[in-house]
Amino acid sequence: MNPTLLHIDNVHKTFAGLHALSDVNLDIREGETHAIIGPNGAGKSTLLNVCVGVIAPTKGKVLFDGQQLTGRRPFEINQLGVARVFQTPEIFGDLTVIENVMMAMLSHRDGAFRLRLLSRFDERGQVGRRAAKALADLGLGDHLHHLAGALSRGDKRRLELVMSLAQDPKMLLLDEPTAGMARADTNTTIDILRDIKRKTGITIVIIEHDMHVVFSLADRITVLAGGRVIAQGVPEEIKGNPKVIEAYLGEEQV
C-alpha cells in the first residue's frame, strides 16, 4: 500500500450555524486517483476549498506530504505541490495558448503572478520550449498562437491541465473537470487523464457528478452526504453499498 500523501483529520466547517462539513477524515494515497462524490450540497467543493486554503476549517487540520496546510495561503499550498483545476476553466483568454502555459511556469517559479514576467522570456528560449512541448504532449501543439479565449470548452480544459502540470505538482485536484461537456469531449478528457497518470504517476483527486467518469478513473472513492463521509472503498464496493445507492447512486441511475 502506498503512503498517505494528503491527510484530512477530523475537519469541520460551519457557515452561520450550518454544518457544511462534520468529522471528515480522509487519506489520499500517493499515486492513486481518488474520487469524491455525493449529491449537491454534500460538502465536496467546501472540502476541496479547505484543502487548498481558500477557506479555513472551523476545526481539524489538513496535512500534505507531512506538512500542515491549515493556515497557509493558496499560493503557498500551490508551491508545496498542490495544483487545482476549477470547474470553470481559469485561463487568460486574451493571451495566446503558449503564453498561458509560460505564465503558469513563471508564476509558480517566482511565487507570485506578474504579467510583466512574460516580456523577459522568448518563446524560443527554455521556458517557451518547455511550454510548447507540454502543449504538444496533450494535443494542443497546433494551437500555440491561438487566443486561449477562442478555444473550445474541451480544449480550454486541456489547456488548464497543461498549465497545472507545468507547475510540476505532486497532487492534482480536479473540480468537475467534465462539467458541461458533450460525451465526446468527456471521453477525450478521460483518455487525457489516463495518459497523464500513465506518464507521470501523479496523485489525482477528482470531484465529479458523471459516474461514467468516476468509475472509469478512480482507484478509490469517498462518498459525502450532508457534510459527512458515508462510505469509502474501491469502485465495486461503492456501487454495491446500500447507503450510497440510497443517498446518491440511485438518483444517478448507474
From TrEMBL:
GO cellular component: plasma membrane
Keyword DNA-binding set for record: no
GO molecular function: ATP binding; ATP hydrolysis activity
Function: Involved in beta-(1-->2)glucan export. Transmembrane domains (TMD) form a pore in the inner membrane and the ATP-binding domain (NBD) is responsible for energy generation.
UniProt xrefs under InterPro entries: AAA+_ATPase, ABC_AA/LPS_Transport, ABC_transporter-like_ATP-bd, BCA_ABC_TP_C, P-loop_NTPase
Entry keyword set: ATP-binding, Nucleotide-binding, Transport
Pfam family name, one: BCA_ABC_TP_C
Name of this chain's protein: Amino acid/amide ABC transporter ATP-binding protein 1 (HAAT family)
Gene3D superfamilies in UniProt: P-loop containing nucleotide triphosphate hydrolases (3.40.50.300)
Domain of life of the source: Bacteria
Sequence ranges assigned to domain ABC transporter in this UniProt record: 6-251
PROSITE patterns: ABC_TRANSPORTER_2 (PS50893)
